Fold this protein.
Amino acid sequence: MGVVLPVLFALLAAFSNALATVLQRRAALSVPQSQGFRPGLVLDLLRRPVWLGGMLAVVVAGVGQAVALATGPLSLVQPLFVLELPLALLLASLLTGSRMPEAVWLAVGGVVVGLGVALASASPDGGKADVPLDRWVPALAACAGAAVLLAAVGLKRPVGKARAGCLGAATAVCYALTAALMKDSMRMLDSDGVVGFFTAWQTYGFALAGVCAVLLLEHAMQGGPLVASQPALTLGDATLSLLLGVVLYQEDLRGHWWVLPQLLGVALVVVGVLNLARRGVDLRTSR
């Protein structure tokens, strides 16, 4: 199967998610902050039109992601969501009317080039469409445990970078698990139709993981600056999704000397993301 279609839809999803992040961040900063986990936060946000606009962007992103995962490997599609961070910062810059410094543009270029080099040299492909339950169980347990632990640690921290980073990482785990489950449920839709899709446990699994991700994301956005939560979310989602693609779907990555450009690309991405985190736009200025 070609890579053009999944790449295009993954890029659409990344842009939509970036737009959703910016809009939801603005909405999250407009409601009363809480120190603990507050499910009622969503009820407050429902009265904010900007948050509803962000959720509409989430729906568009979800459709794009579903098509991308149905037509391409998890280890190709999800790493492209690294582009959410530079896209979110660029969109935030437009909303706040601030000018992006040259160093930020260089960091954006590093992320884009690094991602291209890493994916081109890794050339994710292959894999098995059907994931047996004995591979799902330990993956589900590990992801659920990591998300709960990260969320618990984050909620105990005061508002700031540590709190936002932990909650962003917990959100990343939920997003990666959502993508892995979504890919399997899309296989059910393709093979067994609508009935198979709605009777598959994976469908309800990715719906539950997605709801948890959205709720954790809102708390991460209230928990501290975007420059702390977004890198943890972006890099965490890409890394765990790549791992789940290899472990669950047994997708292939090129080895031997190809590992060197892969590492170079990853290094460029990490350096670029960290620079963006250090120099990027904080959406607190867009309130």
The chain has one domain: 4-286. Residues 177 and 209 are 7 Å apart (CA to CA). Residues 4-286 form one domain. The longest helix spans residues 161-199.
